[in-house]
Amino acid sequence: MSSAAIFILDVKGKVLISRNYRGDIDMGVIEKFMPLLMDKEEEGNVTPILQTGEATFAYIKHNNLYIVSITKMNANIALVFAFLHKLVQVMVEYFKELEEESIRDNFVIIYELMDELLDFGYPQTTDSKILQEFITQEGHKLEIAPRPPMAVTNAVSWRSEGIKYRKNEVFLDVIESVNLLANANGHILRSEIVGAIKMRVYLSGMPELRLGLNDKVLFESTGRGKSKSVELEDVKFHQCVRLSRFEVDRTISFIPPDGEFELMSYRLNTHVKPLIWIESVIERHAHSRVEYMVKAKSQFKRRSTANNVEIVIPVPGDADSPKFKTGIGSVKYAPEQSAIIWTIKSFPGGKEYLMRAHFGLPSVEGEDSEGRPPIQVKFEIPYFTTSGIQVRYLKIIEKSGYQALPWVRYITQNGDYQLRTN
Amino acid sequence: MTDAKYFTTTKKGEIFELKSELNSDKKEKKREAVKKVIASMTVGKDVSALFPDVVNCMQTDNLELKKLVYLYLMNYAKSQPDMAIMAVNTFVKDCEDPNPLIRALAVRTMGCIRVDKITEYLCEPLRKCLKDEDPYVRKTAAVCVAKLYDINAQLVEDQGFLEQLKELLSDSNPMVVANAVAALSEINESSPSGVPLVEMNAPTINKLLTALNECTEWGQVFILDSLSNYNPKDEREAQSICERITPRLAHANAAVVLSAVKVLMKYMEMISDTEFVSVLTRKLAPPLVTLLSSEPEVQYVALRNINLIVQKRPDILKHEMKVFFVKYNDPIYVKLEKLDIMIRLASQANIAQVLSELKEYATEVDVDFVRKAVRAIGRCAIKVEQSAERCVATLLDLIQTKVNYVVQEAIVVIKDIFRKYPNKYESIISTLCENLDTLDEPEARASMIWIIGEYAERIDNADELLESFLEGFADENSQVQLQLLTAIVKLFLKRPADTQELVQQVLSLATQDSDNPDLRDRGYIYWRLLSTDPAAAKEVVLAEKPLISEETDLLEPTLLDELICHIASLASVYHKPPSAFVEGRSGLRKILPASTRLDMKKMEGSGDAQPAVIPSQDSLIIGDLLSMDINPPQVMQQSAPAASYSGPDLLGGGLDALLDVGAPSAPSAPLGPPSIPSNPATGGLLGDIFGLSSSPSTYTSPKTLWLPAVKGKGLEISGTFSRRNGQIYMDMTFTNKAMQPMSGFAIQFNKNSFGLIPGQPLQVPTPLTPNQPCDVSLPMNTTGPVQKMEPLNNLQVAVKNNVDVLYFACLIPMNVLFAEDGQMDKRVFLQTWKDIPTQNEVQYSINNVSANSDAVVQKMQQNNVFTIAKRNVEGQDMLYQSLKLTNNVWVLAEVKIPPSSNNCTVSLSIKSIAVDVAGGVYAAYEGILRS
């Protein structure tokens, strides 16, 4: 059904560590992976799934490592990719970095993890918090052998019992990323918000939490249609949230994992003005020079401020002798990215700034035609959500009856924010 | 301190040194040694020589060490099977350890040691572990059953593990349920007979749905995938399962979402409540769109699946065009897939946006992507008529860029646009001709030549242009050569005065200098045509061309349905059925449940659309003698309707015309007499033509009354089945016993044992006036979904007319299912006869038959029952006969005929692997012998 074997390869295709799960495959077949990948890259039709005569490779890349799954069957490939990403996440949570060195340094524990994560190709326990309770780096120090934590097979497989904190606290971060795609005429092709509610939970025992949002569907069904609410187009929840309950009455109720996790994400299309709008005029004089005039406008309320704004403007790879002029922020040329980066530390709402740049171009044109990468913008606006979503309450109930305080922060940042140029 | 140190080793006598360390008395040293061994194994050194020494370390109370030794065992047990036995005792002991972690570890590892001798010892510990008090052990043991099944299926069945596994489906622990489901699904899939070993029933499904809410994300995927293999017994059950699954669409894990989509897409087929379906459809769109914000690999899988979903249910994403717009930093594989979906979703409402995007993409740098974008513009023009003009303008703009590959792609698609909209855009030909010199790809050259030939009368220097191509004729690709030949013949027919020399030149190049048989044959045909009857040549070569269909690359519907059942799996990414890339496993083909409502609209629609529409260049053109050589013919899926439509077109439009025109010396031998009526709607037409000489006198039982007028709301249907020239027909007489005329007839079958489906829409002359019987013959194919019926040859039929939908059932006489290739080789026959167990032999006797053995042989032969051998035993003639049913089931028979040839009793014994067919075969024998 799923993976017959998992390999972690270095960038040259050498096997760093592997595990054969089903014994139905010749592990030597991995030798074919790199040549095949290189062939495909050369032909320009590379895909994350590669097929050889006898097997299918599915791979992801992480820090110059290839994590490869092999299967001979009609595997659930969505599951395979979701698992490979999970595997990386678990390793990162265990070793901070997953790279060649950390694999050599921890091969014993990686074998143990691989044994527990997947059985006969079927993913099992993949929650690193729970795994850490019985697969530890100091395994040999334990005189009493560890036992499988209850959580491994519990209905609540993400939280162990008996957690204790002196101070019970919950931090909620509502983070909205704005994706924007605009064409060269300044026409907005797509504009959507992908929001996430991330939590840091420091609560004792087995607390029951209930989160209230100004969700439009909920408001309408409870007769509060007139209050300000937000229509969420699609919502995705962490596995701790009771999905059937949400389906019935839109209540978000859950027993949270301990520590940091993403509770939910949501997506909605917006028709609001782009928060930061860029107008650019590019004049190319072939064989001599190219000039840029870039105008940045902040189109949000005056009392908010965008921080760490970075406007990345692509320039030809063979451009030289940069000259800049701007009234605010700093501009630097980043030849390794073939771009100029205009940085504005603090950009209040309702303002407009201008930047001019000038480059020389060689008189002989390069052979390769270059694409026209879009202008990209990075920013953060604290205490502000574009969608207007609000956390109305977070109820915390634990049988010991302690009081816990929820803290909420809001921030809006750029997601995939691209403006095409002429 | 890290583990890295274990990788550094002293070079000399390494194995020897490790050996002594492994046997050391000090625990610490032993453990270090095992780690070194595993480190060596990791870097690919062969340390199998240390097997006994490592196994000696197995009995330890240190868990970490135990795990490493187990790991070593898994890797090397296969190469050292005899020594692996040494480990068995420890395994068995560990399976009873007080610590559940160790019990589970032991049972998990034992299942991974694929050594037969060990497997036997596994049974008892496994049986215990399946009943272990700790769910962690039970869930591990559940997977172990699947492992064992993979090594020794028989053992698992004999030891009753399947039943134990089935019990685990009701386990109180959701994780145990999930793993048991995963193991069962795998066992069912790999069952050699293709029949699931453990069937799911409604109460089990209910338990699974409960566990779904509580198990891990992966467990949810196992359960959903298993639900997708289940066929709800009725619409209500399907609806209630859908309702309980829908919340999974809000799960953060993409695999859970896609598996839920799979179940919903499958069950929706069964649901006739349009309100329910439309609510579900609305719920499916947002999660599919959200998948496009996940990791690029997951996006790729999602996009390949969306491609299927959009073909099956275009409504779901019709308003979501924008989310498929390509981002600059998307990986190329994501870009190409998005482009495909954009074209599928293109409609009049959004075409302006799509076009401006495509134009943007056509100026990017990635060559493959740009080419595909240009092609996409052409496809938009053909799909959305209102946009054609703008598409052509866009293509012209792109041609002006003079980027070589852009120009070539543009010309290829413009050729299709010309075909779709004749006499509209020819004014641009001059612009195209300017780019003649830059074309270096065969497809572009062939397209350009086609354009010149087709519009030769409007291009002043067409002769010069074509002549310039002719210079390098021998070096051209065969597709270009064929095209050039046809184009010059067209030119000659249009402007005979000054092109005679040119045409002679090309004909001689094609017929004398080429060793390509296609080219030679076409050259000869043209030559004869031109020399015998130029008027006829004109009719043939300059005939109206069939239309180009709007949608290209559409998957063949039965394949699409199968792939919908495989959403989220590799098959859905490859767009191929699993049998195409998975070795050895027969497995059952997954099919969508038949819609409970009769989709009459669809049937009528396809009936109307059939004549003369052939898929354009991207799929297949057989009917191509006229002009279109652009693609070399590809092998199509056998059951593809597209292929069966274009097949007849070849004859209808091309050769038939040729032959009718009366070219006496045309090489017509294999094609039969030219007067065959061409019927573009039937799939089996070629069989008709080629099979004309085969015996005409197969046995057909007399018509019986199938639907009395009382039950048919005035419509009476009587009928029978026949087999003519290898084609099964349903011969019916429709009589209207009501007062009003009837119209709007259509027919559909329920799934049946032999996969029979109508080969064409029902053609009843309408209106059917009262009391006027009308005979209708409906050809049938055996490519439909299969479901065993009781009795086996039962066929449930629905006939629709303007009054109502009417249902009846009838029995198919088996003899119409006897295939023409049912003659078995003598030796094979003997072997098969022996191989079939005696309990699969059934005896019958047929009384009062008047026949001698020769007559029997002949009669049976006419009905595709072949006599393999004949013996005479004690005055009785013994005939040994074979026949093959359309579903490839072989039936062997022994016929005993007594010497007196009048009113004798013939005894018949029938043997077949599928003994169920015996009754039907006997009935067929009786019918034939008595006829």
TrEMBL record, chain A:
Keyword Membrane assigned: yes
InterPro entries reported for this sequence: Adaptor_comp_med_subunit, AP_mu_sigma_su, Clathrin_mu, Clathrin_mu_CS, MHD
Domain MHD: 167-420
Highest taxon, organism lineage: Eukaryota
UniProt-listed GO biological process terms: intracellular protein transport; vesicle-mediated transport
Record's function text: Subunit of clathrin-associated adaptor protein complex 1 that plays a role in protein sorting in the trans-Golgi network (TGN) and endosomes. The AP complexes mediate the recruitment of clathrin to membranes and the recognition of sorting signals within the cytosolic tails of transmembrane cargo molecules.
Protein name: MHD domain-containing protein
Organism: Allacma fusca
TrEMBL record, chain B:
Residue stretches making up the Clathrin adaptor alpha/beta/gamma-adaptin appendage Ig-like subdomain domain: 699-809
Record's bilayer topology term: Peripheral membrane protein
SMART domains: Alpha_adaptinC2 (SM00809), B2-adapt-app_C (SM01020)
GO biological process: intracellular protein transport; vesicle-mediated transport
Pfam families in UniProt: Adaptin_N, Alpha_adaptinC2, B2-adapt-app_C
One cellular component term from this protein's GO annotations in UniProt: clathrin adaptor complex
InterPro entries: AP_beta (IPR026739), AP_complex_bsu_1_2_4 (IPR016342), B-adaptin_app_sub_C (IPR015151), Clathrin/coatomer_adapt-like_N (IPR002553), Clathrin_a/b/g-adaptin_app_Ig (IPR008152)
Subcellular location: Endomembrane system
Primary subcellular site in the record, as a coarse category: membrane
Keywords: Acetylation, Membrane, Protein transport, Transport
Domain Beta-adaptin appendage C-terminal subdomain, chain residue ranges per copy: 818-930
UniProt similarity note: Belongs to the adaptor complexes large subunit family.
Full protein name: AP complex subunit beta
Provenance organism: Allacma fusca
Organismal lineage: Eukaryota, Metazoa, Ecdysozoa, Arthropoda, Hexapoda
